[in-house]
Specification:
It contains 16 helices and 21 strands. A seven-stranded parallel β-sheet has the order 17-16-15-18-19-20-21, with helices on both faces. It has a six-stranded antiparallel β-sheet with strand order 4-3-6-1-2-5. A six-stranded parallel β-sheet has the order 10-9-8-7-11-12, sandwiched between helices. It is globular and about 90 Å long. Helices cover about 30% and strands about 25% of the residues. With about 575 residues, the chain is an alpha/beta fold. Residues about 5-15, about 250-265 and about 340-360 have low confidence and may be disordered.
């Protein structure tokens, strides 16, 4: 019977972890030379426990040489049919080679109930992006789409060779899934050659911009591919709420990041862990092990799967004291924000899972009208954000934002001689700034021969010099890892259509573009990230002043949503980038 035959004798499985059951292997299907589909038989009394949402996974608990090993595998079956997983053999792995080579039908495995957050909760029109065995949760979604009216999927799927394509025959039978296959180690007609890189995905979007209207983007595979696709989606202004991903492997770079020394509590900590109705108390040295490992050493029946911050099975709430989260791939911004509200006593939030990337301090310069006003309205919806709205018209801002308890309105003039004194007064009690949006703009529309020295001085002081002075003075509050977003104009973007009368405005905005690139280079070894958005026509008061009677295609609210999402997320994937954001000229 081999390894699994010896393993699954009843006298070796007398202790069943919480949330696990012994399931019988009903069938094993060979998918590719190095992958199999394992189909389980679910007893009638467990069918409700093993119901699932497309995208979820189960965890196998296997003891090898006296050591417990857990591995998570995504569910690849159709809802209502026998639960199945796909397992691709990993070279040098412990569990996957045994499943591929020794597991046989009729044997039993310890299998957890379905879990995971990579879920297609609503059946709509989506885009799936997968590599290798990353297709496993995606095909479960494809089954659901195939049986639903008015739904569709566009699928990009990368593999080494054509023979490595898992579920190829099933995918090709789907009528509502539009397939596009990528091969990385062979060139064949009808296939794209290479990996799903950022450039490849950008080109995919450009071929059909309606892709951006999709209800969700589901990405599963290696970290590099996920980051590339996410960066491309952010570039096109796709909200983070539409981007869903599941990692199979954490990169070496992320491992290094996670193992960097963290300054904090030193010594032995007393820990109390409440797991279901059981309480475990133990001591641990946080510099040597994680809370999860310490709990397991104390014989706590703690839930876990990957131990790498990927699956979120072991998520926990800190009730007292402090803990440090070194890596996070699954807790959402909303969950992390809820913790900040919980810690601040806001009763609107009670279910909090972690305390990292929590409340942000956001500063927006020029907030009284146009995009700036819409930005405050958009960002203030998240009550955990502390927002500083700056403008010369403090009175107007106070009236406009009176309903927001998390917005402070402050007078600020980029053209004032006491600019640094203003900053000291505004931010005297602020330790750090997470997001700084330089949205101010001074525009004068006048023939070049009529422009005065004062016109040039005001344009450059407000549009670039004051911005540089502000950033220079606030550096100590930014250096922890802030994202600085400079708002320039298509008029300052090289190679675009230019308009007569805007010599002072456009050249000063071009200087802001250049400053962004220079700053990113000079501070590339710091934690600060700076990017620049060159905006096209937006229906604002400033546009009407420059082009009376012109009606732009984009409203301030829509542009503010794009800028806000970009400011909150884009620094994870880019630095020193100059990005044109325009549907038309002007």
């Amino acid at each position: 019977m081999g390894f699994f035959g010896n393993l699954m004798k009843k006298d070796t499985v007398d202790k069943t972890p919480k949330g696990f059951h012994h399931l019988t292997v009903k069938k094993i299907n060979r998918l590719t030379p190095d992958s199999v589909e394992v189909v389980f038989s679910i007893p009638d009394d467990l069918k409700n426990e093993y119901s699932f949402v497309p995208g979820q996974y189960v965890t196998l608990d296997i003891t090898i040489d006296g050591k417990e090993e857990r591995r998570s595998y995504s569910i690849c079956s159709k809802k209502g049919e026998d639960l199945a997983i796909a397992v691709k053999e990993v070279e040098g792995g412990k569990v996957s080679p045994l499943i591929n080579k020794e597991l046989s039908e009729g044997q039993t495995l310890l299998v957890s109930k379905p879990e995971g957050r990579f879920m297609m909760k609503e059946v709509k029109n989506i885009v799936g992006i997968a590599a290798g065995s990353g297709i496993t949760p995606i095909i479960s979604m494809a089954y659901e789409i195939e049986d639903s009216e008015g739904c569709s999927m566009k699928l990009l799927f990368a593999n080494k060779t054509e023979n490595d394509i898992i579920f190829r025959d099933r995918l090709d039978r789907f009528q509502k899934t539009q397939k596009r296959y990528f091969l990385t180690q062979e060139k064949k007609e009808g296939f794209d050659y290479g990996r799903i890189t950022k450039d490849a995905f950008v080109n995919f979007i450009k071929e059909d911009l309606d892709v951006l209207k999709s209800d969700g983007f589901y990405i599963c595979g290696p970290e590099e591919m996920i980051n590339n696709v996410k960066e491309a989606l952010v570039l096109f202004g796709v909200p983070e709420s539409k981007i869903h991903f599941e990692l199979y492997v954490v990169s070496t770079e992320s491992d290094k990041k996670a193992t960097k020394e963290v300054v904090g509590y030193q010594g032995i900590a007393q820990v109390k862990a409440i797991i279901d109705d059981d309480v475990y108390e133990f001591e641990m040295d946080g510099s040597k092990m994680s809370v999860l490992d310490a709990a397991l050493d104390a014989d706590a029946d703690a839930p876990y799967s990957c131990k790498g911050g990927v699956c979120c099975t072991c998520r926990a709430k800190v009730l007292e004291g402090n803990a440090i989260m070194k890596l996070n791939y699954t807790l959402t911004e909303e969950e992390l924000a809820r913790l900040c509200a919980y810690m601040s006593g806001n009763s609107n939030y009670t279910n909090v899972d972690s305390f990292l990337r929590s409340a942000k301090t956001i500063v927006n310069i020029d907030s009284s009208r146009g995009i700036g006003k819409s930005l405050i309205d958009y960002l203030a919806k998240n009550e955990t954000y502390k927002i500083y709205a700056l403008s010369r018209n403090e009175e107007l801002m106070r009236k406009q934002f009176a309903s927001y308890s998390n917005v402070e309105c402050k007078f600020f003039d980029l053209n004032a001689n006491d600019l640094t004194s203003q900053l000291d007064y505004i931010f005297s009690q602020v330790d750090k700034i997470d997001v700084l949006i330089n949205n101010a703009g001074y525009l004068v529309n006048r023939p070049f021969e009529q422009l005065s020295r004062r016109d040039f001085e005001l344009s450059y002081q407000v549009n670039v010099i004051g911005v540089m002075e502000t950033i220079q003075h606030l550096l100590p509050k930014l250096e922890h890892g802030a994202h600085v977003v400079n708002i320039s104009s298509m008029g300052g973007f090289q190679g675009t259509v230019k308009f007569a009368g805007l010599a002072a405005y456009s050249t000063s905005k071009a200087a802001l573009v250049c400053f962004t690139e220079l700053f990113a280079e000079e501070f590339k070894n710091s934690a600060i990230k700076m990017n620049c958005l060159c905006l096209g026509a937006v229906q604002t008061e400033m546009l009407q002043e420059a082009f009376p009677g012109y009606e732009a295609l984009v409203s301030p609210d829509k542009m503010a949503e794009y800028v806000g999402n970009f400011a909150l997320t884009a620094h994870q994937w880019m630095n020193g980038r100059i990005i044109p954001v325009s549907l038309s000229t002007p």
